[in-house]
Amino acid sequence: MQKILIVEDEPDMALGLRDNFEYEGYEVAVAADGQQGLDQAIRDNPDLIILDVMLPKVSGLDVCRHLRSKGVDLPIIMLTARGQEIDKIVGLEMGADDYVTKPFSIKELLARVRAHLRRKTKQVADLDTYKFGDVVLEFKSYQATKGGEAIELSPREFELMKYFIQHRGETITRDRLLDEVWGYDNYPFTRTVDNHIAKLRQKVEPAPSDPQYIITVHRVGYKFLG
User: Fold this and answer.
1) CA 138 → CA 23, 84, 166, 204, distances in Å?
2) 59 phi, psi to nearest 5 deg
3) Which helix (H) or strand (E) holds 202?
4) What average pLDDT score do residues 65-79 get?
5) What is the sign of the dihedral through the CA atoms of 18, 30, 113 and 102?
6) What is the DSSP secondary-structure string of 49-84?
7) Ordered structural domains, the chain, with CATH
8) Residue 149 CB: number of other CB atoms within 10 A?
9) Distance between CA atoms of 99 and 112, rounded to whole angstroms?
10) 122: pLDDT strictly greater than 70
11) What's the whole-model pTM score?
12) Higher local confidence (pLDDT), 78 or 85
């Protein structure tokens, strides 16, 4: 299920958006101010953000700018009540993908959300190169660098990374990784996954003992936050 983060301080607007998107089958989280939205976007890694421009604590423009400066590349659709051209220009320069002026048609917003999510999904499906932190993965040539220096990843490690990227932010069980990456329906040794993850962390994490990208979800599996 795709996750949408709505950052909106008007309660009625936030509730209406939440109800509509949940009705369409999305998982929805809501933040009531810019700081909360920024924290949730970084922590929860949603698939798309709907971000109001005028927010308490941190403006939507500053939230967008900060996320882009951190390398967060998920689609951001900004909302404004003012409809001023300068807001749209500044928002797009800050890294927003789209702009909707209040009042707007919920059908139009839903259509734009679906279009951006389809585009993002296609980009991941057609993945040739992916960057997180100082790691760059080249999937066609099976080459990888960290901090500009070549690192050796096995084909299996590349496949693991590709699967993680395609399901970024999801909690993935060890059995699911065995099924989808190794191709075994009932492989008896889930420890195989743990061993591969440990080796992968040694190669791509800044501090393998305290990983920030390939996260362990206790008693369940793993989550990729790159």
Assistant:
1) 38, 41, 15, 14
2) -70, 160
3) helix 191-204
4) 86
5) positive
6) EEEESS-SSS-HHHHHHHHHHTT--S-EEEEESS--
7) 3-125 (3.40.50.2300), 129-224 (1.10.10.10)
8) 8
9) 10
10) no
11) 0.57
12) 78
Q: Which helix (H) or strand (E) holds 30?
A: strand 27-31
> Cβ–Cβ contacts within 10 Å for residue 222, how many?
22
Q: Are 51 and 78 in contact (CB under 8 A)?
A: yes
Mean pLDDT over 35-55 rounds to 93
Burial of 141 (0-12, 13-18, 19+ CB in 10 A): exposed
Query: Which H/E stretch holds residue 107?
Result: helix 106-125
**φ, ψ of residue 201 in degrees (nearest 5):** -60, -40
For tokens 């922590």, what's the residue? 43
Instruction: State the chain's mean pLDDT as an integer.
Output: 87
Rounded to whole angstroms, the maximal C-alpha distance in the chain is 60
Instruction: Write out pLDDT tens, residues 191-220.
Output: 788 989 999 999 999 999 999 999 999 888
